[in-house]
Write a structure and sequence with these properties.
- By secondary structure, the chain is α/β, with parallel strands linked by helices.
- The protein is built from nine helices and eleven strands.
- The chain has a domain of 205 residues: 3-Layer(aba) Sandwich (Rossmann fold), CATH 3.40.50.
- The longest helix has 16 residues.
- The N and C termini lie far apart (45 Å).
């Protein structure tokens, strides 16, 4: 479903949150039905968690799990079989900070890394509050996409709670590195769409908690404030992504280069927004392999750094 140009650079709910195919689907293609929370083994609750759990789970357009109204952030660990590489990566799904595409942009990617020896952690970070009734939520989202007045308001910047959860995740992984057999100085952070903006934010505002490498995937491509100790960055985005249309040139790339920091950009001929791990046969197929190779060239995967 093509979405109109909207104010927030993260509003891709028709692609990233939930959708459809049920008789109860609204004009956005998002189902009004909810589902029970799936089993999430090897999950820890972060210290930033609020007391009340308000999560609402539903299925995405491809039949995968998504969640909104997250108030108790968690990390779910995906351990490799056998000896892990020294590197690890925290994965932040997208969803306009109104929800999270947990399966497509979280668990699937984490399994990919774990199958290659990299310990992965999927971050379920706090999202902005949305109506608890799924039917009301869908109706408000319909209004928002139609350009009408809505109670939903995607932010123009990373919310403070999401940033706090991202930094808490980095601290947890480093503090518990010995338990997972990983190097606390080779902890990466990657994210999709809004999770990509969170990836940028943990670099800009993370201070001593900054990741050792970062990979915003189809993120906001605007310029960023690049700190003096910014880690190497890997970016993947499609040429027909609506986020690129909002910029003149490639400001994110230009700001990183101007700061003298390492950045690798992969711009695919097409793929739109929200391509996840990259469908088979698509131009963006295999971008994870390129990221894995990039991690190796950055010295993250070998025992000797």
């Amino acid at each position: 479903m093509a979405l109109p140009a909207l104010r927030s650079p993260f509003l891709t709910l028709g692609l990233l949150l939930i959708a459809a195919g049920s008789p109860a689907a609204a004009q956005t293609g998002i189902s009004t039905e909810t589902v029970a929370a799936p089993a999430q083994p090897n999950t820890i609750v972060l210290q930033t968690a609020e007391k009340v759990d308000r999560e609402i789970w539903h299925m995405s357009e491809s039949g995968r799990y998504a969640v909104r109204n997250v108030t108790r952030p968690t990390l779910t660990a995906f351990r490799p079989v056998g000896q892990p590489s020294p590197a690890s990566v925290i994965i932040a799904p997208g969803g306009a900070f109104l929800g999270l595409e947990m399966d497509k942009e979280g668990w699937e990617v984490a399994r990919w890394f774990a199958n290659r020896g990299v310990t992965a952690f999927v971050l379920k970070y706090r999202t902005l509050p949305t109506p608890p009734d799924q039917k009301v939520f869908v109706a408000e989202l319909d209004k928002l996409i139609a350009g009408e007045k809505s109670t939903l308001a995607p932010p123009s910047d990373t919310p403070a709670k999401a940033l706090a959860d991202g930094l808490a995740a980095l601290r947890y992984v480093r503090t518990n590195a010995a338990e997972y057999g990983i190097d606390p100085q080779r902890v990466g952070f990657m994210g999709f769409s809004a999770g990509g903006f969170l990836s940028r934010s943990v670099v800009e505002k993370g201070g001593e908690d900054r990741p050792d490498f970062v990979a915003p995937i189809y993120p906001n491509m605007a310029a960023m404030n690049v700190p003096a100790d910014a880690p190497p960055m890997f970016v993947a985005i499609a040429a027909d992504d609506f986020l690129l249309a909002r910029q003149d040139g490639l400001p994110l790339l230009e700001s990183y280069r101007a700061a003298g920091k390492s950045i690798e950009l992969h711009l695919y001929s097409k793929g739109g927004h929200g391509f996840g791990a990259g469908p088979v046969g698509s131009p963006e197929e295999g971008w994870l392999d390129l990221m894995y190779r990039w991690m190796r060239t950055q010295g993250m995967l070998s025992k000797d750094k």
